[in-house]
Design brief:
Blueprint: H1 3-18, E1 26-28, H2 44-52, E2 56-58, E3 61-63, E4 86-92, E5 95-100, E6 105-112, E7 115-123, H3 124-132, H4 137-141, H5 146-155
Antiparallel strand pairs: 1-2, 2-3, 3-4, 4-5, 5-6, 6-7
């Protein structure tokens, strides 16, 4: 995880702690406090995020905590053949957000009119920087919400 992304996460955490209403639209939890081992190098950026924030709610994006991961894998059986190759790490507007353990790429699993498709949204750090904490959030939130307003306020500081 690069230093700019770390600074952004710390800045957002600080602002959220000062806003008592933020629990409705955003939470970045404390980090794990330890480093997760990884036999898959492409998982390191995701594990680094868990080290900084063990789970999060960022508007329409929910990111599971380390403790929730095992309980949240049940939806994968409906989507992929090799469940061991994937990890559901959260959801966007209630659609599963998964990471491919071999490539490190994130996908949103969507179903429209009984057609299932995977939308590639890049690797973990890019997703965090651009979608969770950046301008691309607007495109997935389909407009302005409290998280978007927080992001815009932080950009003007």
């Amino acid at each position: 995880m690069n230093s700019q992304l770390k600074r952004t996460i710390d800045q957002v955490k600080e602002v959220l702690m000062q806003d008592h209403d933020s629990i409705v639209y955003g939470q970045l939890h404390s980090g794990l406090g330890f480093t997760l081992p990884s036999d898959c190098p492409h998982m390191r950026p995701y594990y680094d995020f868990l080290g900084m924030s063990n789970g999060a709610r960022c508007g329409v994006i929910d990111l599971w905590s380390y403790e929730e991961l095992d309980k949240k894998q049940y939806r994968l059986n409906n989507w992929v053949n090799d469940v061991g190759e994937w990890l559901e790490v959260g959801q966007i507007l209630y659609e599963p957000l998964v990471i491919n353990r071999k490539s490190g790429l994130l996908y949103v699993l969507k179903e429209e009119e009984h057609i299932k498709e995977e939308e590639n949204i890049g690797e973990c750090n890019d997703f965090l920087f651009n979608y969770v904490f950046g301008d691309k959030y607007y495109s997935i939130a389909a407009g302005v919400d409290d998280w978007w307003l927080l992001l815009k306020r932080l950009q003007s500081v």
